[in-house]
Specification:
alpha/beta, Rossmann fold, putative n-type atp pyrophosphatase, domain 2, 2 domains, five-stranded parallel β-sheet, 6 helices, about 25% strand
Length: about 240
Amino acid sequence: MSDQAGAWISLFSGGKDSSWALYQALEHGLAVERLVTVHPTGDSYMYHVPETDLATLAAESVDIPLVDVEPDDFDASSAEDSGEQGDDELEPLEAALEDLEPELDGGIAGLTAGAVESEYQTSRIEGMCDRLDCDLFAPLWQKDPRELGETMLEAGFEIVIIQVAAHGLDESWLGRTLDEDALEDLAELNDEYGVHLLGEGGEFETLVVDGPHMDRRIDLEYETEWDGTRGRIRVTEATLE
């Protein structure tokens, strides 16, 4: 990372990976002045999908202003392949960042991102940073998934699984806390089915309801939806404690 002036922006969904990138940026003394959340309309190759509206509560708890990129801002459904869809999905984010830059003293110094192993995501974000002439802070990149998960727990992250879509992950995982026992179970599912320990391939999605960077815990009430092979929680009420 360079020492260029300006503000840092965290690409933020409220999930564990983007939250860890934000937390690490703050721990490194980076001046994070905005969180940016993209709200996809359906399945996405680039973004965390379920319950992104809860990022608003997470941002309030973290006490950093949130910028929303809404579904109406883009439509990648006409893309002919995954590469084109990823490029299309990035356009509204990049446009939002370009609009935001004049509001920030010194412009955009850099972006934080929570990618672990996805070249698909990271290469596109790196390209966007090049075009925006800013740095990229990706503290999870190429780290061991088990060690990362354990480090998040040791730091005090409380992580809830809010969507599952992989062999071996049944309805009982919906709403489950990602703790040491869950990591051990995921390691066994990794051996048997190839499930990524951090859900990097979309096997599962998470929400951080509490952590050392948050002033107040997010309390959830929800129902579960399960179609026999995949499912998600549907939040009925969410408040800051």
